[in-house]
Prior knowledge:
Keywords: Leucine-rich repeat, Repeat. InterPro entries: Leu-rich_rpt (IPR001611), LRR_dom_sf (IPR032675), SLRP (IPR050333). By secondary structure, the protein is mainly β. The chain folds into three domains: 1-64, no CATH class; 70-182, Ribonuclease Inhibitor (Leucine-rich repeat, LRR (right-handed beta-alpha superhelix), Alpha-Beta Horseshoe), CATH 3.80.10.10; 192-361, Ribonuclease Inhibitor (Leucine-rich repeat, LRR (right-handed beta-alpha superhelix), Alpha-Beta Horseshoe), CATH 3.80.10.10. Helices cover 11% and strands 29% of the residues. It is built from five helices and 28 strands. It has helices at 52-58, 92-101, 148-152, 241-245, 315-325, and strands spanning 3-6, 11-14, 32-38, 41-47, 65-69, 72-76, 82-85, 108-117, 122-123, 132-141, 145-146, 160-164, 184-186, 194-195, 205-207, 215-216, 228-230, 252-254, 263-264, 269-270, 278-280, 288-289, 294-295, 302-304, 312-313, 331-334, 339-340, 350-351. A 14-stranded mixed β-sheet has the order 5-6-7-8-10-12-13-15-17-18-21-24-26-27. A four-stranded antiparallel β-sheet has the order 1-2-3-4, with no helix packed on it. Strand 3 and strand 4 (41-47) form a beta hairpin. The longest helix has 11 residues, at 315-325. The termini are far apart.
Amino acid sequence: MASYFTGSVFSVAFPEGEPLKWTLIQQLEGKKLLKIPLGNRELKAFRPDFPHKSLASAIPMASSAIVYISLFSLALLPTGHLEVDCSSAATSDEISSALKNASWPSTQLHQFLLQNNTEVDELSEGVFADLSFNYIYVNNTALKAIHPSVILTSRNRLQRLSVYHSHLLDFPFHILPTLWRLRTLELQRNSLMTIPAIQSDSLHKLDLSRNSIAKIEEDGWATPNLRVLSINHNPLSKFPSAVIKGLAKLEIFWCTECNLGPTLPSGLLQFRSKDLKLVSLWKNNISKLEPNAITGLGPNSSVALSNNNISVLAEESFRPILEVLSLGDGGLHLEDSFLNLYFQPTPFSVIVKHPGSKKNS
Length: 361
């Protein structure tokens, strides 16, 4: 190995006599060796069938490089952080073996990726060994289960955990109190059916949308800093009113297609947050609101009741809502046109006809 090109954050070495023009990287065949200097140590990786396309896409910026080691790839991001991608693995054991056999400059890595994978159906106990991450990202996989230890190795560092479009049947919610830096938990498009009472002082965003959730346990729920909650597209058998009432910092609440209709009963949604920006109740087959069904709104809150079956805005139910919204920039949104209605101090009656008809007010 005599030919080297050294950049600001990485060096690339090719076999003797290989051209070093960046334009030829996608065309070169054969063995490649990539060396990434990290302080006084170097992370070295070797693979005969190095995927040139991935390398070529990273090099033009001269700020990142990608290394493929056995079953996973390692990316040095422009920030200097390390990203591990195990998307080509077939089993959890393969991931575990590859990670344990690698020589790491540090056990504190930035991001773990597993995506577009139809074979790995679990992340089993000890798969990460002593490696920890700031961000764990799983998307479009066959994953059904995650052992608590997989997450707990990152208990002091993990800030975001995302499992999208997979097949999770359960999740170790009971460990959340120990993840004191976790800000975002995204579990949308899985197969979760019940959610226990969640406890987390650090959580800011919780996305449980597009699962099969029928029940959310209310007793013991404690997420005092939660700002965003999404439970969209779940067949709720009982709405978790107590959970909503306890969210003192809530800003955005999504509850589209959750079987709330045809009548929203009094006391269903009692908000406590002074910073509430959006309440989305689209497509819930709602035709009627009882008085005080929705309370605690602020003057700048927006309430989306579009794509429901509301034809008459009963004064006893909607006047209190519109009186609050009229004090700021908030709005009540109905039907596909997002008609904004603001209270006027005159006899009040608004009729909104079904989609396709001319709307009168």
